[in-house]
């Protein structure tokens, strides 16, 4: 059995179309949407609406962690555009979802990232795509558990939930062989982004579940350039499966 695992697609449709090559199934750990490419400020919903110069400025403010200024700048841009932000963003997300879900291989098992909009997924997920969040599936004799979304941050991305709600989803899984999530367990080496030079939010509930239930693997993404891509926590191999938007390469699991 071979399963290819990806995360943080962020609009890379061309690579996504080939992500399942050579595998019996594809697992996608979320963040299909590209709102703004921090490496190429001309790509994403934001520059489509406001242009590259404004994208340059919003990236600079966020990178400097000047989140209040970034939010105020964003409000000024929306006021000048004269469009309803929610409707305009949803229109861009819908365009991306239509393209991305259309190229997912069969079978695909997917959960949401923090920038995804879960309410829209049922409209675009085809019969060969199974969406799981706080749920389990058996593949090749191994039980995979899925936890989608992220925890609340100053960035206020679309699918951020409370620590309590997230922990309830982790608890609902029980014991699994492979624990799949968008965000990592709350370990400094796994949550620190070496390029952004900041800690992303990891989950203590995931970390507690790893220590308590000892899955074979904990698989995740979210942190694009982590201090450590792989480490062990007791009996569990923790793996950041990679920033698929930039690498275009899945992480493969065979047994």
From TrEMBL:
Gene Ontology biological process terms in this record: cell wall modification
Domain Calcineurin-like phosphoesterase, first and last residues per copy: 1-226
Record-linked Pfam families: Metallophos
GO terms assigned for molecular function: hydrolase activity
Gene3D superfamilies from the UniProt entry: 3.60.21.10
Organism whose genome encodes this protein: Streptomyces scopuliridis RB72
Protein name stated in the entry: Metallophosphoesterase
Domain of life: Bacteria
